[in-house]
């Protein structure tokens, strides 16, 4: 009987301890490299990690980010998925997806992603053969 009484206070401490049942913050960089169930981790070009719900894989905006990532960084074998955007842009995209984005807004965001990707790609140095300017006078 005395042993039972000794166990009761420890049980009481377990019950009164605060619970952490809050929803995960998708913008939060967790310390674990393993994503929670139903999520996956992606990294921005700056190296910030985001935990993203698997449901977002069906969204056109996220599909486009992954396609551009594949073109820019290739498919990671064992490494992380890196998206071609900074942390602020990723937070903005995730906040839009969390709220549910309209088709019109989705199309605008997709076109801005496409335009920014084109401008970034056009800044890359491209070797061109030497050309000589020829002037003609009429």
TrEMBL record:
InterPro entries: SAUR_fam (IPR003676). GO terms for biological process: response to auxin. Belongs to the ARG7 family. PANTHER family: AUXIN-RESPONSIVE FAMILY PROTEIN, OS09G0547100 PROTEIN. This is Auxin-responsive protein SAUR36-like. The gene is LOC120262897.
